[in-house]
Amino acid sequence: MRRSYAFGLLVMSVILLGVDGIMFHLHPNMQKCLKEELQVDVFVSGEYEVSDAPGQKVDYVVRDSKGHILSQKEDVSKGKFSFVTETYDTFEICFMSRVPPTHRGVAQEVSLITKRGIEAKNYEGLGEAAKLKPMEVELKRLEDLSEAIVQDFAMMRKREEEMRDTNESTNSRVLYFSIFSMCCLLGLATWQVLYLRRFFKAKKLIE
């Protein structure tokens, strides 16, 4: 039973709390952004590395959909960043290449690894600071993982309720629109019949 429970937590952690790694080429004087939706109060950490190119500089910035800057640095080559989300929003990480007009630029290779939630926490440092045993650190990690899974399920249920309410509202609006359209068609058909009747009477085609 305990093995199956631990296996279930492991599967859910892979599904919900994964680690994202990506590598791409940043062309001269271009910008490339990566976006992701995150929940409230999620700890995010990242590690990046940019290949060296003489005479070229690369800047990075992390911001939300409203333009609030969470992390920013110019002329980077290798480093880390971290932030905590305050609202449910879409966050983006952008890398910008800067090349002087007199310099012939080349594409630079950028590698980025981001972690969020439980995976972003340093449990080894936490265990050393609190003087916890390895088993206690692992139990703490599993406790946080269980709490994160419960929160994710609660958020999924909330989204499902919102989607259901939206579907019901849309169905009722479609029904009312259909009734309104039928009334308009019936009114238009009645008006056409009366108009044609008056027209034929005026032409003395019918009595």
UniProtKB/TrEMBL annotation:
InterPro entries annotated for this entry? Emp24-like (IPR015720), GOLD_dom (IPR009038)
Matches recorded under SMART domains: EMP24_GP25L
Where do the GOLD domain residues begin and end?
31-141
What compartments host this protein? Membrane
Q: Which UniProt keywords apply?
A: Developmental protein, Membrane, Signal, Transmembrane, Transmembrane helix
Does the record's keyword annotation contain Kinase? no
Q: Where is the signal peptide?
A: 1-21
Q: Tell me where on the tree of life, at the top rank, the source sits.
A: Eukaryota
Q: Name one GO cellular component term.
A: membrane
The question of whether Disulfide bond is a record keyword is answered with no
Topological relation to the membrane, as annotated:
Single-pass type I membrane protein
Bilayer-crossing residues are 174-196
PROSITE patterns, A to Z: GOLD
Q: What is its main location?
A: membrane
Q: Spell out the family assignment given in the record's similarity comment.
A: Belongs to the EMP24/GP25L family.
Q: What is this protein called?
A: GOLD domain-containing protein
Q: Which organism is it from?
A: Cloeon dipterum
Supply the source organism's classification.
Eukaryota, Metazoa, Ecdysozoa, Arthropoda, Hexapoda
